[in-house]
Amino acid sequence: MKSIKTLGQFIIEKQADHPYAKGELSRLLRDIGIAAKIVNREVNKAGLANILGDAGSVNIQGEGQKMLDIYANEQFISALTSGGECCIVVSEENEDCVYIDNEVSQDAKYIVAIDPLDGSSNIDVNVSVGTIFSIYRRKSTEGRATLEDVLQRGTDQIAAGYIIYGSSTMLVYTTGKGVNGFTLDPSIGEFCLSHPHMQMPKEGNIYSINEGYYAHFPDGVKKYIKYCQVEDAKTHRPYTSRYTGSMVADLHRSLVKGGIYMYPMTAHAPLGKLRLVYECNPMAFLVEQAGGKASNGYERILELEVKEPHQRSAIFIGSENMVNKAEEMIACFSPQGTKRSFEGVVSIQ
Ligand SMILES: O=P(O)(O)OC[C@H]1O[C@](O)(COP(=O)(O)O)[C@@H](O)[C@@H]1O
Ligand SMILES: [Mg+2]
Ligand SMILES: [Mg+2]
After folding, report:
1. What is the pLDDT of residues 308-345, one digit of tens each?
2. Which residues form the Fructose-1-6-bisphosphatase class I N-terminal domain (predicted)?
């Protein structure tokens, strides 16, 4: 009979990969796993648990918050607060950073940036949603950790991952030594290793973008979409279009089958929509660790300077060859910093 390996066992086993590890990161990943199970329980019975619908509040991005956004945010912050390994939480749902000053967290070394519920527009319609997390070690050594500890580049991440609440619930993460996926077995309440050493195919035939905004995309992006739709059997085109409205779900599919997910810049959102610190950087770290690629169309996501916690970035992420092709089209038809970047774009009246 195939032996199972739980997330907890795997984390402890892999601790040996990090010579100076004292178990703090292991405990932090454990805490994230616990909160994920609690959120999963509510997501699974959302229709019954009176947790669907709007919360009536708006977050820093000006987006209406869903009840589940708030619930998931509370669960992750509470698990990180009582776990004792986290000193600051940066959350999509909190305007300001959450500084954890309680007894157990006095020596906490880690900063956690989190998108508690990704794909919020899908909550009420039972389409897969997720959670995205990114972990940094604080740089400052004296006193309370500061905003400077938060504004680190993606290359400084210690660990990153996501949870997808879909037909099954999975937790996929990296600590910089490859990517592993765990499936929640509800009968034992454990995440069990189901996808060891995940590798993203270099090539794919699925592209993922909200084509409803086509008129607002720069020429380079329009040209790449057209490239995906051309008939050419040699290169397996036309590609298939898939867009769920949940970045986690679209990227999980690309990780397993190959593909590219794009949320470009537009004339009215030159930096796109997605947030660098708790959406783009963690997914970029994970995808690169699985052999894929992530850029803002011009530069590597992980090397982008982080100026503020809720900063946005355009993103082109997925199978390496597909991201290279998209970058090639953008460089050719929308060279960076030139007016041509948005030529042909119909601006919003
Ligand atoms: O509806 P749009 O503009 O295509 O945006 C969908 C994208 O926005 C997101 O929902 C943003 O994430 P949140 O739901 O966490 O705000 C992504 O998951 C998704 O890919
Ligand atoms: Mg999100
Ligand atoms: Mg969210």
Report:
1. 999 999 999 999 999 999 999 999 998 877 655 554 44
2. 5-196
- Residues with C-beta less than 6 Å from any ligand 1 atom: 63, 92, 115, 118-121, 210, 245-247, 273
Contact 195, 171 (CB under 8 A): no
Which tokens go with 330? 């953008």
Given 3.40.50.620, 1.10.3720.10, 3.40.50.10790, 3.30.540.10, which CATH number is that of 7-195? 3.30.540.10
Please report the atom of ligand 1 found closest to the CA of residue 63.
16
Type and span of the H or E element at 10: helix 7-15
- Determine how many CB atoms are found less than 10 A away from the CB of residue 192: 15
How many other C-beta atoms are found inside a 10 Å radius of the C-beta of residue 175? 24
Task: Give the H or E element holding residue 225.
Answer: helix 219-229
CA distances from 342 to 52, 169, 222, 304, 337 (A): 39, 40, 11, 21, 10
Annotated domain spans of the chain: 7-195, 206-333
In angstroms, the CA 295 to CA 312 distance is: 13
What is the per-residue pLDDT across 265-300, written as a single tens digit (0 to 9) for each? 987 888 899 999 999 999 999 999 999 999 999 999
Q: How many CB atoms lie within 10 A of CB 182?
A: 26
Q: Judge contact between 224 and 326, C-beta under 8 A.
A: yes
Q: Which fold has domain 206-333?
A: D-Maltodextrin-Binding Protein; domain 2 (3.40.190)
69 is in an annotated binding site: no
